[in-house]
Amino acid sequence: MRTASRDVDFHGHQIKAGDRVMCLFVSANRDEDVFPEPYKFDITRRPNPQLSFSFGPHICLGLHIAKIEMKALYEELISRVDSIELAGEPRLKIGNFVTGFKTLPVRFTAS
């Protein structure tokens, strides 16, 4: 949450000094003005100015370690697993700022 320090017109919406504002990153990553198919899962989407780790002075300090960890995970999976398939119904955990899976049952087939 942020507090507006001055009155501003934001795309036709009036925000007054003192108003509380919030960026919902999940919405920003699905912006129809930025992405041609915002709701399509596409790991090759370019350009991809997504906001999962924020930006500027509020950027996540763990950004680089998270990227290293995910790269290591994918490299190990690719080298050890032939296939990954759903093994049950995924359950979402929906929050105000972060949404993810509460459960995501999967079955791995070893190489």
Automatic annotation (TrEMBL):
Instruction: Extract one GO molecular function annotation from the record.
Output: monooxygenase activity
Q: PROSITE patterns from the entry?
A: CYTOCHROME_P450
**PANTHER family linked:** CYTOCHROME P450 YJIB-RELATED (PTHR46696:SF1), P450, PUTATIVE (EUROFUNG)-RELATED (PTHR46696)
Similarity section = Belongs to the cytochrome P450 family.
Name of the molecule in the record: Unannotated protein
- Report the source organism: freshwater metagenome
